[in-house]
Structures are given as structure tokens and as C-alpha cells.
Write a structure and sequence with these properties.
Layout (H helix, E strand, L loop, with lengths): L3 H6 L11 H4 L2 E6 L6 E5 L9 H14 L6 E4 L12 H9 L2 E2 L26 E5 L7 E6 L5 E5 L3
Parallel strand pairs: 2-3, 4-7
Antiparallel strand pairs: 1-2, 5-6, 6-7
Bound molecules: zinc ion (ZN).
């Protein structure tokens, strides 16, 4: 049997398929009841309005069933709220490699982070501009690089 934590950690985000839910910071806890062997997974949703959570729940249950843990329960907790700061260093590197500009660190609650520092994931130029608040999904904004004129997705800081 595969460790349930390892099995759940390999589930990828359905919208950003290069990054796992563990790297995104969505996966909060994986507990196995020693008596029954039943696994309970706790997740915290990312952006409100992201329709991906139902898919993630189903994917976690499927991954655990494949690892020998049938009938896993997936719980959703909203507190503390997910933040883009929970994305791991490895996750940020994967986002950049996939052409998605990772979110800038959120410095303090209530302080709007400067989006001027968004760098083009193609050429690294800071000469970028926001084209649309909404990219391919509600979680991402569409940006364009003024140096190489390539459009790219930017994961909004939260
Ligand atoms: Zn560029």
C-alpha cells in the first residue's frame, strides 16, 4: 500500500496541470484512522470561484483508491484562507517553467502588492503589462511582455 499522504500529494491541479495540490498548498492534512484504516484528507480551496475543487476532490479519492485506500473522505476547510504564499518554491519554479508567472509574495494583509514586478516567464523582462484581469481561468490574469510581445498567464497573488 502506498502511503496515503504520498498518494494524495501527487494529485495535480486540474487547471494548472504542471503543479500538484501539495506544491500549491491546497493539501492541508492526510490522516489515517489506525483502527479502521479510513483516510481523511483535508484541503483548503484556492480562489473562490475556481470550479476546480470538485475535480480535485474526485481526483484525491481516485488516487487514494488506487493506492489501496478505498472510501477516503475529503474535507474542506476555509480557515485559515489559502494564500499564494503557500505555494512551495518547487511549485513556483514549475509555474515559471510552464510559462505562468508565479505570484509575488504577499507582504502584509491588506497591502496591495505591486504588480509592476511581474516578469515575463519567456524572456525575464520586467517590461510587462496586464491585458485582462482574467486569463484562461478566473484564477489567472492575462499579461503581455513588451520586450518579446509574448502573452502569458500570471497567477494572481492572494
Ligand atoms: Zn518577454
Amino acid at each position: 500500500m502506498v502511503n496515503p499522504r504520498d498518494a494524495a500529494a501527487l494529485v495535480v491541479d486540474p487547471e494548472i496541470r504542471v503543479i500538484t495540490i501539495d506544491e500549491l498548498g491546497i493539501l492541508r492534512a492526510v490522516e489515517e484512522d489506525p483502527a479502521s484504516g479510513r483516510v481523511t484528507v483535508t484541503i483548503t480551496p484556492t480562489y473562490t470561484g475556481c470550479p476546480a475543487m470538485d475535480v480535485i476532490r474526485a481526483d484525491i479519492r481516485r488516487a487514494l483508491a488506487a493506492a489501496g485506500h478505498a472510501d477516503a473522505e475529503v474535507r474542506t476547510v476555509y480557515s485559515p484562507p489559502w494564500s499564494t504564499d503557500w505555494i512551495s518554491e518547487g511549485g513556483r519554479a514549475k509555474l515559471a517553467a510552464a510559462g505562468i508567472a508565479p505570484p509575488e509574495p504577499v507582504r502584509a494583509p491588506g497591502v496591495v502588492s505591486l504588480t509592476l514586478a511581474v516578469r515575463c516567464p519567456q524572456c525575464g523582462s520586467p517590461e510587462t503589462e496586464q491585458v485582462s484581469r482574467f486569463g484562461s481561468t478566473a484564477c489567472k490574469a492575462l499579461w503581455r511582455c513588451r520586450s518579446c510581445s509574448e502573452p502569458f498567464d500570471h497567477l494572481k497573488a492572494l
